[in-house]
Amino acid sequence: MAYFYKNLCQRISAANLPALEAAIDVWLIANGVTLRRKWINQAGTEALLFYHTVLDASLVNPLLVFTFDNVEIGQFNLAYPLFLAKGCAGTFYCNLNEIGTVGCMTWANIVAMAGGGMDMQDHSQTHTDFTTLTPAQMLLECAAVDAAFIAAGLAAPTHFSYPWGAYNNTVIQTLSTVRQTCRTYTNWTTSYIHAERSTFRYELQSYRIDDVLSFNVNDFINYHMEACRISKGIMVTLSHAVNVLGGGATKISDIETIIDYAQAHGFVIVTIAGLRTNWLI
Ligand SMILES: [Zn+2]
Known about the structure:
The protein is α/β, with parallel strands linked by helices.
């Protein structure tokens, strides 16, 4: 099944919204955009503009993918049991250099999660910015992760998330020989749910729901998730640490709130591996 669409979000000062709206409407009409939404945050200080073009809308349901990086122990202690309780699963990208260190998951945790239906994937061997590596060095990193997964009794990973979200064309060309998708993130400024570029499988954008920069779960649901639902888009979230209180981490109650909203509003919650198998060409 092939589909291509673009969702773009812009985050601007609410005070600038009235002056920009007229100009944006001209651009939208000229570019054939079919839907525009705006959302002012609860503090009234910031406006989010959302507009998209559906070139081939063949999704029946909107999709939601939870992804996690850096083997933080809260992913095992809090997110994993929540997913089991809710009957869904997430994708956990593991970097070898942190497995078994203080505050991080062990191989036993990772193997248990794989056995429980979680999607355990590759976040590199050393967590080095791949744009600083040669192709040969990148391939050695992937081979080391493959070997470690196999040594732990798991299948070698097939999906990757870029350390620091960093990539360029050389990284894409190299990783595409050994991985089926690569995920990056946008740090809130622009949130492409997907771009219609030919390399989009290697530029999977995600929206960070870490409790930093004033992430507000109600704004996220009312704006991003609601727009994603209406457009039958794909929302990929990104978390690192997960805890009870938030504060530099994703609050587990925020994940539960998002799952509950998604399951009550027709979303299908899938993993990256499931997304690739069932929806991405
Ligand atoms: Zn990372």
